[in-house]
Amino acid sequence: MITIFRKELKDVVRWTPLGMIVIGLLCWQQVPKYLNECSQLPTSLASMVIIGSGLFALVLGLLQSLFDQRTDSRAFLLHRPISVKDIYRGKLAAGFVAHTIAWAVPLLVMAILEVTSRLQRRSDSPGWAATFWQRWSERSVCRTS
Amino acid sequence: MLDPVIRTERLSRYFGQRAVVRDLSLKVPPGQVTALLGLNGAGKSTTIRIIMGLLRPTRGGCQVFGQDSAQLTTDTRMRIGYMVEGHFLYPGMRVRECAEFQRAGYSRWNEAMFDQIVGHFGISQSTHVAHLSRGQRAGVSLALVLAPDPDLLVLDDPALGLDPVSRRALNETLVEFAGDGQRTVLLSSHLLDDVERVADRVLLMIDGRLQVDTTLDDFRQRVTGYVLEVDTVDADRIAAVPGLIEARRLGNRLHLTVADADEETTAAVHRLNSTSVEIIDLPFTDSVLAWLSRSRQQQSFSIGSRRGESA
């Protein structure tokens, strides 16, 4: 199963940048332009990730199975001392990993950007984070002097 | 007598309404090279796919090593080397990676044999499959199926598209592999010269039916050729020759190919108003071609066009 997994992962991982771009673009559209939209961000982001990753999962599944529908390819894959279940599991696991990378990376990038920008906004109109940073920097300045 | 390695019982396979394999009952004995012959669409590849458990038969059964081919266990699959038609390999892999991928699950893997066969075809193991020629791909495929040292080797048109040098390399490897009489080979091919060189038995399929199942020597002996000098041809009298496989007219000479010729056949041939009758030894290739031509003639373009005209 490990061999099938490795081979499949090598094949499907080529498609993950495509998935990342699609899901990334969908997420990017949800970035709030006004402060009052911020509260809806988790919901809208989650729905976009679900739609995007669902679409990508469908495409990935088709790509993984369509090539092996050819008679020669199918015969080459299935005739080996590995059970069909293990071949299926290997393919599934590889698809799962590729799919996870495709949605997790853009979501993570989005989250980091969002947290950074929020901190930025709060430091403009002093909030808890800005206050924290201000106090911390003052303390460190005192120490050095 | 030893149990056959492959046994099919009244095997039939339909694709929609079209029967591709019909009532096929055959036995592949152990320790021999058996050639499965037939025209394109005769049902050879379909039969092999059923034998390998990749396709379910519509009717009938098939056993490999005494096990239902539709439910071959991984242990049984380990004993079978199968070269798919067209020498399929994953194009994104290097030759070395192909070997690593293929060896997974096999308890035996003869690395030296793999290296030897790949070397025989002049292939570097770091080469990408996508950059291999067809002959080289065949070499890698052969190395992949032989390295696990299988008891049964099933080759679906292994010489397809190969140049003469690659074909010779393939034949030499096959003869070497099956030479000890311990291992069984089933190969389908269109290359009759190659078959004559390597095969012990012949299975001839025509339109999904098995027409011949015998040893190569027996096949040669049972097919006889007659050459007759004739001025006029009586089609009904020719058709009445017992065991007639094929009749071809070349100028004023009539070539007859007959199976299991006996006194009755000889008498029927002499009744054809010929000035001379000569019995000739038919080469294996010509004998097989006679069988195959007969099936093709039944669906020839000329008959079809005449039917079209009359309609």
Number of helices of chain B: 12
Largest sheet of chain A, in brief, is: none
| Record field, number of beta strands of chain B | 14
Alpha carbon gyration radius of chain A? 23 Å
- Mean pLDDT level of chain B: 85
Poorly predicted residue ranges of chain B: 299-311
Please give the CATH class of the largest domain in chain B: Alpha Beta
Main beta sheet of chain B:
6 strands, mixed
Measured as a percent range, the helix fraction of chain B is: 25-40%
The named CATH superfamily of the largest domain in chain B: P-loop containing nucleotide triphosphate hydrolases
Coarse structural class of chain A: mainly alpha
| Amino-to-carboxy terminus distance of chain B | 56 Å
Oligomer: heterodimer
> Secondary-structure element sequence of chain A?
HHHHHH
Shape assignment of chain B:
elongated
Please give the alpha-carbon distance between the first and last residues of chain A: 63 Å
**What is the CATH topology classification name of the largest domain in chain B?**
Rossmann fold
